[in-house]
Predict the 3D structure of the following.
Amino acid sequence: MFHSSYIELSKSALQNNIDFIKQEIGPNVQFSSVIKGNAYGHGIEQYAILAQQCGVDHFSVFSADEAQRLLAVISKPATVLIMGYLDNEELKWAIQNDLEFFVFEQDRLTEAAKTARMLGKKATIHLEVETGMNRTGFAPHLLCSILDQLHNYKDAIYLKGVCTHFAGAESMQNHERIMEQLRLFNEQVSLVKAKGFDPEQIHTASSAATFFYPHTRLNLVRVGIMQYGFWPSPETYDFYSKQHPDKKDPLRRLINWKTHVMTLKQVKQGDYIGYGSSFKAPRDMVLAIVPVGYAWGYSRSLSNQGQVLICGQQVPVVGIVSMNVLTVDVTDVPDVQKGDEVVLLGKQKDKSISVASFAELSTQLNYELLTRLPMNIPRLIVD
Ligand SMILES: *Cc1c(COP(=O)(O)O)cnc(C)c1O
């Protein structure tokens, strides 16, 4: 496929991360690989294939369209859990294809039972309860009635899981709120059990909770950001490294975003570079023109701020990032040539451009920066 830049995904990095997470959670906790948001920008299709090769057998997605993309490419059986959006047509498709899904409102429960009966096939659900995030989840006062209905729907609905989601476990600032959520969750799980249900999977933890609050792992963890090699926040990494002062960062990033020098340009001292007058050459300069701009997710806020790697050296973006092109100062890179590899994100020789530094400069969160990497940049798997 022709393209002006591409994203490499490292298989050995993923294997490393998955081995690390599985070792931390132990054999009795199910690992679910969260691949919403186009697998956090890594590309659902390429990432899912890699993840299966690395031993993943459980995926969590946000919506039916993501589940559909996943099913189209995986070669081995896997459990697929839809945590968010499902319209009624999609609900039917989900039940037909043995997908599991969250139920957090009356409407979806009624519809799931109706559709399952019509199909003559049981729907497998995870009951999401409200504990304080106030996004999705049944309010506690509704739970009794929902459980009564589930008894009536026993022929149509299998209650496999009960779950909730914490409102920011990656920051100790939210500690009390998270603990209150956990208390409410345990109360509701007790009610579910008292009503005669014994769900196989009780789950609450994302990456941050898995590491900050090991007792929230219960019997399944839904891990997103960490499998891609990123800590959910600097705080979570500090926490880990204080507990393991002898170890270096156990996670490895999968992503390398690369392109090539499109052409070189000499400019004279005093010339302006690019649109407008934000950069005036302080000396005679050599510029490398790089064929990536904001149309490819290279934020315009990195104008005169960003850094890229060329010939193993870190060099600055000069001037305004255009739609399809950015310019970097390579005056001090003596051997640079047209066609040389440019790393926008990731490693080259012993240097690296981290998502964190990139994200900080463009004032985006890791999560946001990754998921904004456009879908149509090709993703290539490397070792
Ligand atoms: C995104 C998400 C996760 C994973 O979060 P990470 O911080 O990336 O590990 C887990 N559960 C739910 C419900 C989510 O939406």
Q: What stands out?
A: The two ends are 20 Å apart (CA to CA).
